[in-house]
Input
Amino acid sequence: MTTQPRLRVGSVRRFTRNLLCSVDLFGRPLLLKYTRNPADARKEIRGHARLARHYRIPALHGHLRVPGGHLLAYERLPDSRDQGLLLDLLNTDEPSDDLHDYLDQLTTTYRNVIVETAWPTAPAHLVRKLYWDRAVPGGRLDAYYTGRDFSVADGLIDIPVSRLGTYTLHINGQRHHLDWGATLRWLRARFTRAEPEWAALTQGDPTDVNLAHPLAWFDYDTAGMNSIPGEFANFLWYVSALGGWLVPTYNPAAFADHPATFDHAPANTPSVQRAEVDGNTSTIHIDYTPRLSTPRRAAVATYWYQLVQPVAGRLWSGVNLANLLRPYVAMRILGVYNLADLAPQDRLILLARLSEAMSPAFDPTTYFLPLESPCPAP
Output
């Protein structure tokens, strides 16, 4: 007669500053989360409680202080290699029926909860981690960029970003302008405004690794009253840029249990065809090809048409969505990775994407669902 071990411990995975570990304790599947920051642990516990009445989330069985941090024990939902997350539904060659059903359920849940809980909320009472806290003195914008100048793209366009404003940018045949210093000042000012923001109760960081399949939500330290445009920008930017391209490139350990991510990364990685400076006309020419796999395009399109547009129609009828989304998109571009630390070609593409988002002609529909061929330079 064989007996089951009382304790079985899986491998430890690192996600940003947190550690996750699967544990089977007396036959009960648990997910242990270790965080070093007690304040983050308190936010996680409060956020979990706030979401419980509105979203499907794993049970929190317990939490305790441990040396150097805090340990939380969650119900572990079924998962396996390349299974268990929205990410896995996106890591396919074509959108599946499961993905379409999942997206319908996701957008319906969000639409119902956002409409039910939406309220103009003072910024002081919003979840501030992903936007406001990054703009304050000493936040990420300061830590990344204050007092630091760097090349637009070493070996491709060897012009300091501080001088970008003195050039005309031709990006895929369209004329743009980006003043680096002015953009940073504008973002800081935008996220010090005191006017109320339309906010709703959400998880706040809706990435394809924070959304389980079957549908459930993980990670609660940003759960609470979140800016609705910020929520939208976060999902759209993650699905269209971070999840399929940048995070696998710069944080591959996050996908150790989902290696199909790397097989599909080429379908989501943009490429540069032209990067030239015309010194006579002070013009920078950039031609790049955006790429987005068909499952990720399906996710963006469904989210936009079944969630963003209906909610916007109720809350901001007649208002230009581009103006609402622009500061949040810009902060996602600048405040997740330090552009100075990225490979030159990746940095160049992100600066081009920032220029497009800051343009008066910014159109979120084509921005997040771009044609996959660059416009030829005139």
About this structure: The domain at 7-75 is CATH 3.30.200.20 (Phosphorylase Kinase; domain 1). The chain has two domains: 7-75, 86-368. The first helix runs from residue 38 to 51. The radius of gyration is 21 Å.
